[in-house]
Amino acid sequence: MTELTWYDTLTKPMFTPPSGIFTPAWVFLYVSIVVSLLIFITAKTPLNKKEGYIYFGLQMFFNILWTPAFFILQKPILAFVIIIILDILTFMNIREFYKCSKLAGLLLLPYFLWLLFATYLNGGIVFLN
After folding, report:
1. 38-52 tens-digit pLDDT
2. Which end of the chain is more exposed for a tag (fewer CB within 10 A), N or C?
3. Which residues have a Cβ under 8 Å from the Cβ of 74 and sit 6 or more positions away?
4. Phi-psi label, residue 16: left if phi above 0, alpha if psi -120 to 50, beta otherwise
């Protein structure tokens, strides 16, 4: 729990939600991500899906990297760089999914908006601490 103690000591930006919001939000977002991927996989399209799979895999990789960078290594600047890359990759992922299935792309929008909010929070922590 050391990383949570460290987090609790940080000065946080305005609009930081209470800690209890994060788990339900991520459960909803991960369900949306999985449903989007399943729709993309099953979409009948003449388009090549290779780029969609690549962007999906890369953005999930950076999604996984963010938590240890921020909470375990306690490196908000590194985490900020990671989340900016994640934002870009997620945007590209949405674009590729949308080409094959509008619904698959649209289902990733709440995730993308949450990432942008998380980018604001992470950047705020970098700036304020």
Report:
1. 999 999 999 999 999
2. N
3. 3, 6
4. beta
Nearest to 93 by CA among 51, 30, 61: 51
Closest CA to 45 of 106, 108, 102, 109: 102
Helix extents (H) in 18-49? 22-42
Sketch the domain layout of the chain as residue ranges: 49-129
Predicted local distance difference test score (pLDDT) of residue 1: 47
- Side chain identity, residue 39: I
Name the token pair of 13: 């930006």
What is the rounded radius of gyration, in angstroms, for the C-alpha atoms of the chain?
Answer: 16
Q: What is the rounded CA–CA span in Å between residue 28 and residue 34?
A: 10
- Cα–Cα distances (Å) from 106 to 9, 49, 68, 96, in that order, read 37, 17, 28, 11
